[in-house]
Amino acid sequence: MSIRAALGQVAARLVRSRLVVATAGILLAIAALAVVGPLLSPHSYLEADFDRRLLAPTLADLHLFGTDDLGRDLFVRCLLGVQVTLVVAIVASVVSLVIGVVYGAIAGYAGGRVDSAMMRLVDTLYALPFIFFVILLMVYFERNFLLIFVAIGAINWLDMARIVRGQTMSLKEREFVEAARLTGVSPGRILFRHITPNLMGVVVVYVTLTVPQAMLVESFLSFLGLGIQEPQTSLGSLVNNGVRQMEQAPWVLLIPASLLALILASFNFLGDGLRDVLDPRSRER
Amino acid sequence: MQQTGALRFALMRVVSAVPTLLLVISLAFLMMRAAPGGPFDEERALPAETAANVARAYHLDETLPQQFARYMSGLLRGDLGPSFRYPDYSVSELIGGALPLSLQLGTLAMLLALLLGLAAGISAALVRNTFVDRVLTGLALTGISIPIFVIAPLLVLVFAVELGWLPASWSGSGGQARLLLPVLALALPQVAYITRLTRASMIEVMESDFIRTAKAQGLGMPTIVRSHALKPAMLPLLSYMGPAIAGILTGSVVVEQIFGVPGLGQLFVRGALNRDYTLVLGIVILYAALVIALNLVVDILYGYLDPRIRRR
Hints:
The complex is a heterodimer.
Chain A: H1 3-16, H2 18-40, H3 74-110, H4 112-126, H5 130-140, H6 145-171, H7 175-182, H8 187-223, H9 235-245, H10 251-278
Helix pairs in contact in A: 2-3, 2-10, 3-4, 3-6, 3-8, 3-9, 3-10, 5-6, 6-8, 7-8, 8-9, 8-10, 9-10
Chain B: H1 2-34, H2 48-57, H3 64-76, H4 91-126, H5 131-145, H6 148-162, H7 177-206, H8 209-216, H9 221-259, H10 264-273, H11 277-305
């Protein structure tokens, strides 16, 4: 079967999977709204108006989601929060993807003692409550965006490493790898030019599952006040602020909370659906 | 023969947990030392002599190996050093004051999660593909997607603010009732996972040959479930206990924050926000030790119940 035919088949299966189409649609819509919405709104995320604190959602003056305790427009702040949360999660996932693919591919290709030592380390790290180490990092170092990316990426690579290792082990026995080896291609080149490209299908599926995990970590940190700092915001800090206002103004909590839950659920369903489409065997798990 | 195998397996596990714990402690300690600036940098500048005295009092003037040796030897005696932000207390005293409440909260939440999750999972499996099953699995899937720091405030909003049935915070005169919401909030995400796991493994067991035999012998459904299906169906659950413990630990940080429970989680967040290095370091080490120890117990139990695992 040619590559084009195989891709066509996958595409057809993707379109037929209503779950994948629906959740991908929801996510794209939210992302588009997060980018475009703040530009269309007459308010900025910074502008505080003390005469208009804790307004309920209203069409007047276009406070579509109402205002927070400082009179800032919640619509714009929520969308900014979505932007920040998504960007952090995606960048962190890329970090974890790079670490996980390189580590897993090397372990799987090397095999033997190197492999078992490398995987022993992964097993060891698995047992640790990693989130607390991230908090430790946040305490010791100045809190900044870059650190959040790296810290979250650094905890999420373990799953990726395991999956990539398994795939590499089966790929390295295949004929095209053997052919490359016989024609004298160096191990590094075999690994990153011949094997890694063939891993991408699996990797893409698992990235849709690491993105929500990274979102969760970021919003958890921001919720505790250890992540994104004011006046910047993320869905986690918005929920935290909402908790303080919920008795007088429940929407300040409910709107960012439901946005976060909706995005997380969509990613989880999308990942599940993609896995079913691209990797039918995993359905039996 | 079987007994010695299980014993050897248990011993091997205990031995392999020690380097993990050492790795955790050194990593956490080194990270602290690698941080730019000292713990007292943010306060107004002290006279050079006072600064030197402070540094000496907290042994900040020693070399790294000396500090590490001092910390480790203290750790062996249960001494985690002085707190940097509560000068009158040692870290061990602060932790000792907060730990019992968090342990109570965590244990209750775990028991509740097991009870609700098992009940929901088994019922869903027995009435597979009916309306009840769909409702239960749908609820479980939703529960997995909602983070605990959203579930907890929602519970407060519904049961404390709107309905007024339960106290919302710790400070009021709630008595034992004030435990209810935090325990529920802590348990719910785990209930979702346990329900899904139990349902899946129960379905698998109910389709196996020995259950068909039991049915063919004319045993009633309650007997089959109770004395044949339940035990093998619960085995996969055991391997989920590790992640569940970690989840409840992490969740307790959030839940204690929201409900104002003066436990370890709240102490941890306060320490983190105040940059109380030694306090945060001590709690992280305690958390890690707790997770490693409980995982060890689960592992050994698993090896005991399922001999196949020991061969790995």
